[in-house]
Specification:
The complex is a heterodimer of chains A (352) and B (415).
Chain A: H1 2-19, H2 24-31, E1 41-51, E2 54-61, E3 73-80, E4 83-90, E5 98-103, H3 109-117, E6 123-126, E7 142-148, H4 152-162, E8 168-175, H5 184-192, E9 197-202, H6 203-206, H7 211-217, E10 226-230, H8 232-244, E11 251-256, E12 260-263, E13 267-271, E14 276-280, H9 286-292, E15 310-320, E16 326-329, E17 335-338, E18 342-344, E19 348-350
Parallel strand pairs in A: 7-8, 7-10, 8-9, 10-11, 13-19
Antiparallel strand pairs in A: 1-2, 1-6, 2-5, 3-4, 3-6, 13-14, 15-16, 15-17, 15-18, 15-19
Chain B: H1 17-37, H2 40-64, H3 70-96, H4 121-134, H5 165-174, H6 176-184, H7 187-190, H8 194-198, H9 200-228, H10 234-260, H11 278-287, E1 291-293, H12 296-301, H13 308-313, H14 322-335, E2 342-344, H15 345-358, H16 365-371, E3 403-406, E4 412-413
Parallel strand pairs in B: 1-2
Helix pairs in contact in B: 1-11, 2-3, 3-10, 4-6, 9-10, 10-15
The chains are: A alpha/beta (352), B mainly alpha (415).
Chain lengths: 352, 415
């Protein structure tokens, strides 16, 4: 065993010597993109329409993908107009398979692209599953899920995997109208079979469910550990209600985080590794702002052509001083920006 | 920049300061147009080139495993030569310029790319992107002008050593990748004094280069021939790799000579770039570069450096776009009465070599009088503002007041 392993790693070393200065996987990518464990990808096996604005993508992940836990999400990277953009989507399938359900939102570059353009056979980039919106190993006897809109997606992932282990499930789900309920048929079938108690609310006609109404709909609310996913206001209201009742520990939330990036003039620039924080003006290049604060910055031509000064921005917004264009990054991103021609357009965090 | 250099006819004497800034504005507008239209088509192009190059290299190297058979040797060597040229020119050079950084693909990015060349990409990016592209054709600042071993301008002082420069140039062409590595190490400067030789930074860089060259040699002359030994093809594989490297070196050297050496290309006094504006920088790029005419295949094989003028104006824009904007650039030259230097490959190579021979001898006649005339004195001593667009251009003014943008993607992120 040890001998074959030595032989194999020896042979691999030879291949590596042959492909220098790149790695063997770069050549492998040309013929078998899913075999490269260094760059995680998935092939779209099927595209299933769910509602007018939502599709389920059945994915076949490449080598190196670790199975997810029900309730977790994966980040998916797609090239929209040639630019790689990453977004997180909850896994809606049971472990062993990988499906995500994408709801097209207005002005959502990635979601619109996936809903309208995704085709069988396409490749997407993938990250390992992550997230802590999961059930404890000792499953609660009674459980409540409160969801709205595409907030149903992580809960669907949980129901499809763990329902046999759950005895008493209440799901309160809101959507604009009946037709907009993602997985509507499947949920109603589960309810009809007596596997779950489903409270379906169409907010377009009946309005939203407030915490007080929820307490009336679910009389034993206090006894039910609750998992909630939906818009921020809903989660904030729930949080306040649970806290007021003294059972805040019962509530687990997953946020659809609509990130507000103030693209103003200037902002606080944080250099993550050095810990320096600078108040940078809207017309001062990040490079100069950093240098003025004593940060050792990489630099080159100082006119935006040599790319010696690029640093990863993990959060925030910058403006290109040459053409005024805005580049933004949200948590989990790693957007490289040219610090010599970019100024802060809001608070930004640089990994440097 | 009015003190261009000491030439009998100053090619920009007819331009006013406003003209130069207008040229700058026009080029900035063109730049914005390209940036705004970058998209899927461009991304497809570079991915296609990379995938073609890798397939070609794999197939050629596989063929060379049986290179004991002459047809396999011929085909394999030809394929490997083309693959190596593509890798260095259309892919490596352009990726390391950051031309494809906008795709945000970590695999095709200036910060991660390493090329099939003796010079480590880190060092090449400094000497090429930073020095050569910022100080293009400025005597004493742009080492690409003769690579510090040749005299390529009348203004450079002649010494008897230059008599041998046609020979140096030929030797440099044959071993061009090592020439580049030595040049990126600034050997001339760094070997001069003991202090420089002993400096830890220089030693570290030297180590980097040695490691890179070691790996390159081991690949082409060690591992690959060893695999070919199974069919008794090890010697022929060594010959094939050596040939491919030689072909690549001669080709890249020729293309690069054509970029800045042919007749018609201007050079600049060091003092002329003090306080240089964005418009002046653009103008210097326009006058300091020369193009090569040819068909599509030739352009791709030169990494679109046959559009050297366009490349120097916009070194960080995708190379497939240079050909598309060339007519507009040519028109701009014409409108402002400037000469767009371009010619066929043989003509430009010939012209560059003629210059190498001519300047191996001391200046004579008119050139002598001009070169030895009084040095122009610059009155200005101010910080250059090359990155700054003219303030009169409304497009560059920052939006007034803070604007809030909300990304509306449903992101089911961890709570």
């Amino acid at each position: 065993m040890a001998v074959t392993q030595t032989l194999r790693s020896g042979a691999w070393r030879v291949v590596e010597l042959l492909t220098t200065p790149v790695v063997p996987a770069d050549y492998l990518d040309v013929v078998a993109p899913l075999r490269n464990a260094g760059v995680l990808r998935a092939r779209i096996e099927a595209v299933r329409p769910e509602t007018r604005d939502a599709v389920t993508l059945v994915l076949r992940p490449g080598r190196g993908f670790r199975p997810h836990e029900p309730g977790q999400y994966v980040r998916i990277g797609v090239d929209v107009d040639g630019v790689r953009l990453w977004r997180a989507y909850s896994v809606t399938s049971a472990p062993g398979r990988l499906s995500v359900t994408v709801n097209a939102v207005r002005d959502g570059a990635v979601s619109s692209y996936l809903v309208r353009q995704a085709r069988r056979g396409m490749l997407v980039n993938l990250d390992q599953p992550a997230g802590d919106f999961t059930l404890p190993a000792t499953r609660p006897g009674k459980i409540l899920f409160v969801t709205a809109g595409s907030g149903i997606t992580p809960v669907m992932g949980i129901l499809r995997s763990l329902l046999p282990e759950l005895d008493d499930v209440v799901l309160v789900h809101s959507a604009r109208e009946r037709e907009a309920v993602v997985f509507g048929d499947e949920l109603r079938a589960l309810a009809a079979a007596g596997r779950i108690r489903l409270v379906e609310r169409h907010t377009g006609t009946d309005g939203r469910i407030g915490p007080a109404e929820l307490a009336a709909l679910v009389p034993d609310l206090a006894e039910r550990p609750t998992w909630a996913c939906g818009p921020n206001e809903m989660l904030d209201d729930l949080g306040a209600h649970f806290a007021a009742a003294g059972i805040a520990q019962n509530l687990h939330v997953e946020r659809f985080r609509p990130k507000v990036i103030a693209t103003g003039d200037g902002g606080k620039v944080t250099f993550g590794r050095t810990g320096t924080v600078v108040d940078a003006g809207g017309s001062t290049p990040l490079l100069e702002a950093g240098e003025a604060a004593g940060v050792l910055m990489p630099s080159g031509c100082r006119m935006g052509i040599c790319f010696s000064c690029v640093l990863p921005m993990t959060e925030g917004a910058v403006r290109d001083l040459r053409d005024g264009s805005i580049t933004t990054a949200v948590e989990g991103d790693n957007v490289l920006v040219q610090t010599c021609v970019s100024a802060a357009a809001g608070n930004c965090h640089l990994d440097h | 920049m009015t003190t261009l250099q000491r030439k009998p006819v100053n090619p920009i004497a007819h331009l006013t300061e406003e003209d130069i800034e207008a040229i700058g504005r026009e080029l900035d507008a063109l730049r914005d147009e390209i940036v705004a239209s970058r998209g899927e088509r461009d991304a497809k192009y570079i991915r296609k080139v990379i995938s073609t190059q890798r397939r070609l290299e794999l197939a050629s190297r596989a063929l060379l495993l049986v290179s004991i058979f002459p047809p396999a040797w011929l085909l394999g060597t030809a394929g490997l030569s083309v693959a190596k040229i593509l890798e260095n020119m259309e892919i490596g050079h352009n990726v390391m310029h950051g031309q494809w950084d906008w795709m945000r693909d970590p695999k095709i990015h200036s910060t991660t790319w390493e090329w099939d060349n003796a010079s480590p990409s880190e060092q090449w990016k400094h000497s090429h992107n930073e020095l050569h592209h910022t100080y293009t054709n400025v005597i004493g600042k742009d080492n690409d002008l003769g690579y510090g071993i040749m005299r390529v301008d009348e203004q450079q002082r002649w010494s008897p050593i230059h008599l041998g420069q046609p020979l140096w140039n030929f030797v440099n062409a044959c071993f061009f990748e090592y020439g580049i590595a030595a040049y990126d190490l600034e050997l001339g400067k760094n070997l001069k004094t003991r202090k420089r030789r002993q400096s830890p930074q220089f030693k570290e860089r030297l180590k980097q280069v040695r490691r890179k060259i070691g790996k390159q040699l081991l690949k082409d002359y060690g591992v690959h021939p060893a695999l070919s030994a199974l069919t008794g093809s090890w010697l022929t594989t060594i010959a094939a790799n050596a040939t491919a490297n030689l072909v690549r070196n001669l080709w890249t050297h020729s293309v690069i000579m054509c970029g800045h050496f042919p007749e018609g290309v201007e050079t600049f006094e060091r003092t002329s770039i003090e306080g240089e504006t964005r418009g002046e920088w653009y103008l210097r790029q326009m006058l300091g570069s020369a193009n090569i005419d040819g068909n599509r295949a030739m352009h791709i094989m030169t990494g679109n450096l046959s559009y050297q003028i366009e490349h120097h104006l916009f070194p960080d824009l995708p190379s497939n776009r240079y050909q598309e904007i060339a007519p507009q650039i040519r028109d701009l030259f014409q409108r402002y009465g400037l000469s767009y230097t371009s010619g066929s490959l043989p003509r430009q190579v010939g012209s560059a070599w003629y210059k190498v021979f001519r300047l191996s001898l001391p200046n004579r006649g008119e050139a002598k009088a001009l070169a030895e005339g009084p040095r122009p004195v610059s009155g200005r001593k101010v910080k250059a503002t090359r990155w700054q667009r003219p303030a009169t251009q409304p497009a560059t003014e920052p939006a007034t007041g803070p604007v809030a943008t909300v990304t509306t993607e449903p992101v089911a992120a961890a709570s």
